[in-house]
């Protein structure tokens, strides 16, 4: 589903009763409707997009917000995105309070980047939302920089992700160098990896 190029121009888009976008399985024409793509760069006056009943997106979720969008809060019940979740813009706040899984159909990631220095990643956006081996990038990302990533590197015996993470930073931005660490953390070119308790 695409939300872009709305004519006549409008300041808001509301889909009050839409609960699920896309159907998996690939065995019918319904599988052609996968994912949600919102691009308000093409609609500079569109500052509010709301899907208040949406609980699941089969496929990827991409939201490119124009500079007029300062608060992304139109997805209060969204719990599952079956592929990657990508949100970009200059927003100050983001709310995805019900989100519990991303990329449950395989590999995928969460990339949430804002050019607003006041943006803080919501506390519920963690590596535990993505499958083993996938990463989360979430936070303020000034122009011409590489954002930090936190990755899901472990699983428990129940198959649920652990809190083991790797942090990836841009060595050029942080001044990181390759050297041994007294805390048992291996570092190289701005990449560091540490298991909890080590």
Cα separation of the termini: 45 Å
How are the strands ordered across the major sheet? 1-4-7-10-13-14-15-16-18-17
Strand content: 25-35%
Sheet with the most strands, sense and barrel status: 10 strands, mixed
> pLDDT average, as an integer?
76
Structural class: mainly beta
Q: Report the helical percentage.
A: under 10%
Order of helices and strands: EEEEEEEEEEEEEEEEHEE
Number of helices: 1
Radius of gyration: 18 Å
Domain unit count: 1
Per the principal axes of the C-alpha atoms, what is the gross shape? globular
Total number of beta strands: 18
Uncertain segments are 156-198
Question: How do the helices and strands line up, and which of them pair or pack?
Answer:
Layout: E1 2-3, E2 12-14, E3 20-21, E4 36-39, E5 48-50, E6 56-57, E7 61-64, E8 71-72, E9 80-81, E10 85-89, E11 93-94, E12 101-102, E13 110-114, E14 135-140, E15 149-151, E16 165-168, H1 171-174, E17 186-188, E18 191-194
Keywords:
198 residues, mainly beta, 10-stranded mixed sheet, 1 helix, 18 strands, globular
Short description:
With 198 residues, this protein is mainly beta. The protein has one domain.
Q: What would your notes on this structure say?
A:
The protein has 198 residues and is mostly beta strands. It has one domain (2-143). It is built from 1 helix and 18 strands. It has one helix at 171-174; strands at residues 2-3, 12-14, 20-21, 36-39, 48-50, 56-57, 61-64, 71-72, 80-81, 85-89, 93-94, 101-102, 110-114, 135-140, 149-151, 165-168, 186-188, 191-194.
């Amino acid at each position: 589903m695409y939300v872009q190029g709305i004519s006549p121009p409008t300041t808001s888009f509301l889909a009050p009763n839409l609960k699920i976008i896309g159907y998996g399985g690939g065995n019918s024409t319904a599988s052609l409707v996968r994912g949600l793509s919102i691009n308000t760069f093409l609609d500079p006056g569109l500052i509010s997009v709301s899907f208040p009943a949406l609980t699941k997106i089969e496929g990827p979720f991409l939201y490119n917000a124009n500079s007029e969008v300062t608060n992304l809060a139109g997805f209060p019940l969204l719990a599952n995105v079956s592929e990657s979740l990508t949100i970009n813009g200059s927003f100050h706040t983001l709310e995805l309070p019900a989100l519990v899984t991303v990329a449950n159909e395989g590999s995928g990631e969460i990339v949430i980047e804002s050019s607003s220095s006041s943006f803080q990643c919501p506390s519920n956006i963690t590596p535990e939302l993505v499958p083993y081996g996938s990463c989360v990038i979430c936070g303020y990302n000034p122009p011409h920089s590489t954002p930090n990533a936190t990755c899901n590197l472990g699983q428990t015996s129940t198959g649920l992700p652990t809190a083991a993470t790797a942090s990836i930073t841009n060595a050029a931005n942080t001044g990181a160098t390759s050297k041994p660490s007294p805390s048992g953390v291996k570092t190289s070119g701005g990449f560091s990896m540490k298991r909890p308790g080590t």
